[in-house]
Amino acid sequence: MPDLFPFPGLRYRLDALDADLGAVTAPPYDVIDEEGRARLEAAHPHNAVRLILPRDVEPGDRYRRARETFEEWRAAGLLVADDPRLYVYRMTVTGEDGATRRMTGVVGALGLSPLGQDVLPHERTLAKAKSDRLELLRSVRANLDPVWGLSLAEGLSELFETVTQNGPPAAGCVDEDGVEHCLFPVDDPGVVDRIRAAIASTPLVIADGHHRYETALAYREEQREAGVDDPGADRIMMLVVELAEDQLVVQPIHRLLRGVTHEFRGKLNFVCALSPLGANTPEGVRHLVEEMERTGNLGLVDGKGLALVEPRRDSLQSGFDRIPAEVHDVDAARFDLMMGRLSMSVDLPREIDYRHDAQAVAAMVLKGAADMAVLLRPVSVVQIAAVAAAGERMPQKTTFFQPKPRTGLVFRSLDLG
Predict the structure, then answer these.
(1) Do 258 and 209 have their domain in common?
(2) Following DSSP, what letter does each residue of 43-102 receive, concatenated?
(3) Domain of 265?
(4) DSSP assigned state of 349
(5) Does residue 65 lie within any of the structural domains?
(6) Does the pTM of the predicted model rise above 0.90?
(7) Is 16 within the bounds of a domain?
């Protein structure tokens, strides 16, 4: 069963930086675009983005630069190690309806195990992203941001909340989206034991961080094959949250298509029925998303405007027969089946990109930054659990969990444990 260990977290010494935590923390690396990267770099010279997305000064030196930066910050006393402990992590967000929502988990060092045993994936991965994270791990030898895991243990959230009631957080900030992030070290050995026992009672499902988890497995295997005794490589920093509707907000990840030919547009009718829904306006996009939820269909945005997309079961049946029943109603899988069927008769778009905001995606099509977009519905917590329990995976880039944990509240050095 999953084993979550206390670890000596490295945390910013803010008095030495003369900065608040918000200035030095960052979103996860895979949601930072180039504009956001520059903004974070300008926010503070010690912002965590310089570790998770280092820049090349000379070709190919970015991983070495990340290592040197990390070592410099530690040597200067800007990052200081705690005694080994767990950390309860609370995120608080106010929704568009004015209601406040809290998501509370715990950060620890999880003992690595092969995927499909104590830790269950729910999504496939991309090779390029794994190679990048592996090079960074080899060089820096640190978990810079936590993998996000979901526990099936009931009552875990209430256990975490008891920690937050013992006093103010040891660290906290509010991010650019208005989400409050708070970190509460867990010093009571009895509470640590209760948390560890609860997490060990059921398998964990990876919510976010499949690439980093697989990267950690690959790095551990490299060290073993090289004959290196490396206990630090046997674990990975993980944020564990209870798999419950009130603890998770799951958004879809839409598909942006570039290099779409006229022939491709014409062939769409062979794999789906299109129902036009008017012009590409913000109000129109909101209506399209509502209709997608009501009808169980996908959405289309292109030069002609908006449309509902109903996959043609007769054309795609052979594809459905080849994939697990648990993913038949997952829009990312239905999109892949449509693309696979079209590839038999027409050239596919030269590039498919992934974005989670429907309005931003539609605006990109309107401006000509993409030729077409296919909007997807979010998967549910129930679907995630069912796919993982069946030992299956959804397509890559299916789920976008919100709010995102902040990078920089705590780091884990492999050399410290």
Answers:
(1) no
(2) H-TT-THHHHSPPPSSTT-HHHHHHHHHHHHHHTTSEEEPPSBEEEEEEEEE-TTS-EEE
(3) 254-375
(4) P
(5) yes
(6) no
(7) yes
